[in-house]
Design a protein that fits this description.
The complex is a heterodimer of chains A (128) and B (217).
Chain A lengths: L1 E5 L3 H14 L3 E5 L2 H11 L3 E4 L8 H10 L8 E5 L4 H9 L4 E4 L4 H12 L9
Parallel strand pairs in A: 1-2, 1-3, 3-4, 4-5
Helix pairs in contact in A: 1-5, 2-3
Chain B lengths: L7 H15 L4 E7 L4 E8 L4 E7 L5 H9 L3 E3 L7 H5 L8 E9 L4 E11 L8 H50 L8 H28 L3
Antiparallel strand pairs in B: 1-2, 1-6, 2-3, 4-5, 5-6
Helix pairs in contact in B: 1-4, 4-5
The chains are: A alpha/beta (128), B alpha+beta (217).
């Protein structure tokens, strides 16, 4: 599965790339810039987007809103993976149409399982 | 009795309503200076809250300036000395009446103004300075709490984010090594990494406990 990751921390980028590639068997594209997510999603049609909230140029919430408003990208499942984990922030993400919310820090060895749990209602998974 | 939690806005509005009633005034406003130096109607009983265009504190000018610069209670007929505020309170202005401006003094400076009126010009208001100052002090306390609340509302999520982000890299790297992604590690190394991982987990729990207790509601 093609996965688009929006994450601005270079160390976390390395961890996510490694986990999603090796354990999730995913084809991973990463961007650190918020305003790049929407064009990348339109160009590459990923099967899943992992989205941080605090990103340069455009916040994860703004990106989620834009993706859900466009017919071409609105069906792409979005999972927030972020350190912004206050109840109000989780609520906002879910209201905007995200499929799930994972709080940092995460256990890299459990991440694929957690993502699959969120993707289960859509009958899709990674790592197979 | 229902345990209803009031917002600071509601508390401040209730306070100015109480002051207006106590002083038998038609209008009571709490004007607060924001970080840009503009005056906002923070609470009121009579007109709507918000920014009044062009209303700034000029220490050298008018009743508002005097009140701010000298921490002095000022009486005014409101026809010339209130700048942009005069237009907003126009329906309340009468020739034979006056308004009172009470400085809302914080720890070191005047934070805003409590604005009462109108009163008949002959009514002696200034002899009741202690009462007026107490009313100003009440607004100062409420205002300080409000600012603290706003600061905490931004600070707590920011702190949560700033602590969790570096921990993600630390815990993630340790987790991958312990999970065997780079092959097996010796028992001594494993023991050390497990200790580091427990430390990370303890820190995350501490952050969560802090967030749960400090998040202002």
């Amino acid at each position: 599965m093609k996965v688009l990751v929006a994450e601005d921390d270079p160390d976390i980028q390395v961890i996510l790339k490694m986990v999603l590639t090796r354990l999730g068997k995913c084809d991973v594209s990463i961007t650190f810039q918020g305003d790049q997510v929407f064009p990348m999603a339109k160009a590459n049609h990923p099967g899943l987007i992992l989205l941080d909230v605090m990103l340069p140029e455009m916040s994860g919430f703004e990106i989620c809103k834009a993706l859900k408003a466009d017919p071409e990208t609105q069906s792409i499942p979005i999972i927030f993976l972020t350190a912004r984990s206050m109840p109000a922030e989780i609520h906002e993400a879910m209201t905007l149409g995200a499929l799930g919310y994972l709080a940092k820090p995460f256990d890299p060895m459990a991440l694929v399982g957690q993502i699959n749990q969120i993707l289960a209602p859509l009958k899709i998974s990674i790592g197979a | 009795m229902e345990n209803q939690q009031l917002s600071f806005e509601q508390i401040l509005n209730a306070t100015v309503r109480m002051l207006r009633t106590t002083w038998k005034a038609k209008l009571c406003l709490f004007l607060q200076q924001d970080d840009q130096g503009d005056l906002c109607v923070r609470a009121c009983d009579g007109i709507s809250t918000g920014k009044i265009a062009g209303l700034r504190v000029d220490p050298s000018q008018g009743g508002i300036g005097q009140c701010f610069a000298k921490n002095k209670i000022v009486e005014t007929d409101a026809t010339t000395s209130l700048g942009a505020l005069s237009a907003v309170i126009k329906p309340y202005i009468r020739k034979d009446q006056k308004f009172v401006l009470v400085p809302v003094f914080g720890e070191t400076r005047v934070l805003g103004i409590l604005f009462f009126g109108p009163f008949p010009k002959k009514e002696k208001i200034l002899p009741r300075e202690a009462e007026l100052r107490s009313a100003g002090a009440l607004c100062a306390v409420l205002s300080a709490h409000w600012r603290l609340y706003q600061w905490m509302s931004n600070f707590v999520p920011q702190l949560n984010h700033e602590l969790r982000t570096p921990l993600t890299a630390v815990q993630g790297s340790i987790g991958m090594v312990l999970g065997g992604m780079f092959g097996q590690v010796g028992n001594d190394v494993k023991e050390m990494l497990e200790m580091a991982q427990k430390g990370c987990e303890r820190t995350v729990r501490a952050i969560e406990e802090y967030i749960n207790t400090q998040n202002p509601k």
